[in-house]
Design brief:
Two copies of one chain form a homodimer. Chain A is of the alpha/beta class. The first copy, chain A, has a domain at 2-123: NAD(P)-binding Rossmann-like Domain (Rossmann fold, 3-Layer(aba) Sandwich), CATH 3.40.50. Chain A is built from 17 helices and 16 strands. In chain A, strands 3-2-1-4-5-6-15 form a seven-stranded parallel sheet, sandwiched between helices. The mean pLDDT of chain A is 95. Chains A and B meet through β9 of A and β9 of B.
Chain lengths: 448, 448
């Protein structure tokens, strides 16, 4: 019997736990789910005999030692900052370790220890980062093997609500992942490289410099740039590439409307507002507008942001209730915290809502002297409230790679992100079997 | 004989040193000018017999001890962060101490020591902070004494180039003070209170929310808000006031054009740009614009910022040479550092140029049930390259208060900023004699 320790049984662990439970009998695994909320963990196990739930606290050193010691492979779904505690214990006790979070220098420092122990640690093994790395590297390696010259690579991912669950919501968006990250998205300066030129977009222009992206059978999306694309030159070994651009997908119209909040200063997280406990939605918006007792908040905002009163952006703001004299119902908060709180009133998934993940890559390359363009896309749909697209796309890469490691089909040691063929090839194959399929198509290259 | 120690003989010390030298014989003072650059210090003394120059290094504890020990009163023109070293020594050796810099918590902690020693330390005794405090408190105290209710206070100061030295410069602006602070001005969120409502302006909107200000005999100016006006509620003891707004003055048209740099992201100081050593002015601007080999940088910028190609803003940018393929001539830099470097090529004062200081206060109050508005303004002109308006307005408050302390006409002890009548009344009187005069006028109150 091999033993798997899963730390954390939250919303995003559903598909991971289900996959491992399903395979546990055939693979002869026992599974321990370590979680602060024992009821939650037991609910995920649903009485399966190879699994048990135990109480967990990452700062209980003795408990951590005991649980990791008893396992062959550990998967952490903890908040990103806590992985390091588990990673050090896995290095010490010589266990494989997997997470879906971005790797850090602190974690990279353990590479030698994992290597010497003959154990593998994979970071960034979820959706984004994770599936994006694997699906991109597959094509990048294929192009390289054919001797083609890669000139550009763009990659976009978005966590959205399924079209069927949009209803009358003009944003066509709800929170399907950490709302705070959605509100703060893009803060700082965005850097990328386009046709060999370094380009910079300040935050207050980011949501007005979107790309229009077409995905067969799903229509148009819009994408805004992620913070630092330049760092990915090294991750994907693309030194010398002329265009590199990473971004986030939304449905058309979202970004221009979201920009209204940015222009107002309503996404600022750097200071606490005054008098929050007495503030209404309308007063929150009015805090960012000039004082004038004779003009309405609507007119002041429309004039400030140069919007027509009957524009789609004004309608989106009205639909959110931003102009209502409804109490915010918070005692303190930064503008970003207050905005998040207001948005949650309308952007929270209903139990019957389904989410959706969209990923899209564009590769430009030169084949036999001719410019070519290949697009690759994946769309994943949630089944229900528990089995969300987010949970599948984050959890299945972890679950599948855990299986492949325990089956000794992946034999790498040390710390890796999934850009190696030994990892991405078998994992992508199994993801396809699970319905997470990339569709590739050659299109006419677009020029500037 | 009383002895005065002046630390620092830079550009802003000219008027301070001249005033003290002029009064040294009558007042029986000897003056030591402590400065790293001995030639500079000797040049300021011009052979006057009561004064001498000595080499100085703030980190030479023995030297500091000796120089402070031999003096009755010390004035520091060092960079703000270094005052604390001198302040501690003055507290220890029981000497009066004056600076023109903002006070800090670290410095405030010495209050008891100065108090027990029976010595006075005045911080914020320059122009802004300094003359602004004194001239505002004079009116605020007068209104209070008359039993009037203050409803609003706005105060703006600007360091500008004199109208006669503007020439063909469409910005009507040159650097007369620290250029870096001008480039970074306004970063962060601006907070103020207007008619009892807290208002917030994000940096990317700040230069588009200016106030138009008229000063008799000098015409119109425009003002943008300083970062945090709310802190001044306590400084001026104005709790309950409905409107409080502090800002910076420029000539009309400056702010909307400066906003173009902000919109581009060219004032960002948070990251180093790539390939700076090969960059031209034009490429610097192009870094913030979309890639398109068929469109000109001018057209891309005009479209991005919604400007007419023949607009005054485009002309201002063209006048600066922003679209020229002239090498920037820096090896590395943040956008803000590069912009500062380019601006210095055109915005540096010529030897014959004169500078100008403009300060303006607006007081709204209720007198006998009637709303009233009082405006108070001061305009100071530089005489020449050495005797700048900046040097006069920063140096004379220090020099005059030094004289009044040594004459025992100011008897306060401990640490103060010049908001007390005992300080501001005699200092303002002498400033008027020196030509730094406030003109007050009652105007029709403006309403929103």
């Amino acid at each position: 019997m091999q033993h798997i320790l899963i730390i954390g049984a939250g919303k995003s662990s559903t598909a991971l736990i289900n996959y491992l439970l399903e395979h546990s009998e055939k693979e002869q695994w026992t599974i321990t789910i370590a979680e602060k909320d024992l009821a939650l963990a037991n609910n995920k196990i649903q009485g399966q005999k190879n699994a048990k739930a135990v109480f967990f606290d990452v700062f209980d050193a003795e408990l951590l030692n005991e649980l990791v010691g008893a396992s062959d492979l550990v998967i952490s779904m903890l908040p990103a900052s806590l992985h390091i505690h588990v990673a050090r214990k896995c290095a010490e006790l010589k266990k494989h370790f997997l997470t879906a979070s971005y790797t850090t220098e602190e974690i990279q420092a353990l590479h030698g220890q994992f290597n010497n122990a003959g154990k593998l640690m994979i970071m960034e093994m979820g959706l984004d980062p994770g599936i994006d790395h694997m699906s991109a590297m597959k094509v990048l390696d294929e192009l390289k093997e054919k001797g083609y010259e890669l000139t550009g690579f763009e990659t976009f991912t978005g966590g959205l609500v399924a079209e069927e669950s949009v209803g009358d919501n003009p944003w066509k968006y709800k929170f399907t992942w950490n709302p705070r990250n959605v509100v703060l998205a893009g803060q700082g300066t965005c850097k990328f490289i386009q046709e060999g030129r370094f380009k910079y977009i300040p935050y207050h222009k980011l949501f007005r410099r979107t790309e229009q992206i077409y995905i067969p059978d799903h229509g148009y999306f819009e994408g805004y740039a992620n913070r630092d694309s330049l760092a990915y030159i090294d991750v994907y070994n693309l030194r010398g590439i002329k265009t590199l651009y990473r971004g986030t997908l939304r449905r058309p119209g979202y970004c221009a409307a979201w920009d209204a909040f940015i222009q107002l200063g309503a996404t600022d997280d750097s200071y606490e507002m005054e008098n929050v406990s007495n503030m209404t939605h309308r007063q929150f918006i009015n805090s960012f507008l000039s004082y004038n007792p004779n003009d309405s908040v609507e007119l002041k905002l429309a004039h400030y942001l140069n919007l027509d009163l009957d524009s789609a952006i004004m309608f989106k703001l009205r639909w959110l209730g931003m102009f209502e004299d409804e109490p915010i119902d918070l005692r303190t908060g930064t503008p970003a915290q207050i905005l998040e709180h207001i948005l949650k009133k309308k952007w929270t998934l209903n139990p019957e809502d389904k989410d959706m993940i969209v990923m899209w890559h564009k590769f430009n390359y030169i084949a036999e002297g001719q410019p070519k363009q290949l697009e690759s896309s994946m769309v994943a749909m949630g089944d229900d409230e528990l089995n969300t697209a987010m949970s599948k796309t984050v959890g299945l890469p972890l679950a599948i790679s855990a299986k492949l490691i325990l089956q000794e089909k992946i034999k790498l040691t040390g710390i890796h992100v999934p850009i190696e063929k030994e990892i991405y090839e078998p994992v992508l194959k199994e993801l396809t079997n699970a319905g997470l399929t990339f569709v590739e198509r050659e299109v006419e290259p677009t020029f500037y």
